[in-house]
Design brief:
By secondary structure, the protein is α/β, with parallel strands linked by helices. It has a single domain, classed as Rossmann fold (3-Layer(aba) Sandwich). About 25% of the residues lie in helices and about 25% in strands. Strands 1-4-6-5-7 form a 5-stranded mixed sheet, sandwiched between helices. Strands 2-3 form a two-stranded antiparallel ribbon. Strand 2 and strand 3 form a beta hairpin. Helix 1 crosses helix 2. The chain starts with a strand and ends with a helix. It comes from Haloarcula marismortui ATCC 33800. It catalyses: a 2'-deoxycytidine in DNA + S-adenosyl-L-methionine = an N(4)-methyl-2'-deoxycytidine in DNA + S-adenosyl-L-homocysteine + H(+). Belongs to the N(4)/N(6)-methyltransferase family. It is an enzyme of class 2 (transferase).
Length: about 210
């Protein structure tokens, strides 16, 4: 499996106060200002998948088409979209529209049949995951850190124990940490030395 949360290219310079924290920035770092586009990494990620491989990626809901277009170019079978409903979304900055409480997750497979690793024996479930934005003790110093519980059902339903999960944008190591807890192998790629250190420390601990 390739499972990742890449840069969305949606940063801005606005700051707000939210959930007890002041001056929350919508600037996610230099890496989010158009420097990494889906076409830069999806072809390489797809090429490392096996014949039963699964590709799952988050992306901004408005621009999800960029991910889907690259997957089509690689002749991937687009299975569905999963929706993360954030139960505590950030307030709307401009006050002219509703809060953005949903992020989309694309699911695609290498083959067009049923040979991929979806575990139907786990039963039916909705394609909506309702979880709050990462907070409390789990929250680390990363502007777009996602909660572990967002990825847990995805890994449970779309992989088998012992499968390998590649995350090309590992950040603070959330996906490798969940993979570790669920008995999957993991490969994480992260260019920021600070986040790499945080991720390695998380993998050494029982929690976080």
């Amino acid at each position: 499996m390739v499972l990742t949360d890449p840069p969305y290219n949606i940063s801005s310079e606005f700051k707000i106060e939210f959930d007890g924290r002041k001056d929350i920035s919508h600037d996610f770092g230099d890496w989010d200002y158009g420097q990494v586009k889906p076409g830069d990494w999806i072809p390489q990620a797809v090429d490392v998948l096996t014949d039963t491989g699964v590709f799952i990626s988050m992306y901004d809901d408005i621009h999800m088409g960029r991910i889907l277009n690259e997957l089509r170019r690689k002749q991937m079978e687009i299975r569905q979209k999963i929706y993360w409903h954030k139960t505590n979304p950030v307030p709307q900055f401009y006050g002219v529209k509703w809060q953005r409480a949903v992020e989309e997750i694309a699911v695609a497979t290498v083959n067009q049949g049923d040979g991929h690793h979806f575990q139907e024996d786990r039963g039916q479930r909705h394609n909506v995951i309702q979880k709050p934005i990462c907070r409390g003790k789990e929250r680390l110093d990363h502007p777009t850190q996602k909660p572990k519980e967002l990825f847990r059902p995805i890994i449970k339903w779309w992989t088998h124990p012992g499968d390998t999960i590649l995350d090309p944008f590992t950040g603070t190591g959330t996906i490798p940490k969940v993979a570790q807890e669920l008995g999957r192998h993991y490969i994480g790629i992260e260019q920021d030395a600070q986040y790499t250190k945080v991720g390695r420390n998380r993998l050494k601990q029982r929690s976080l």
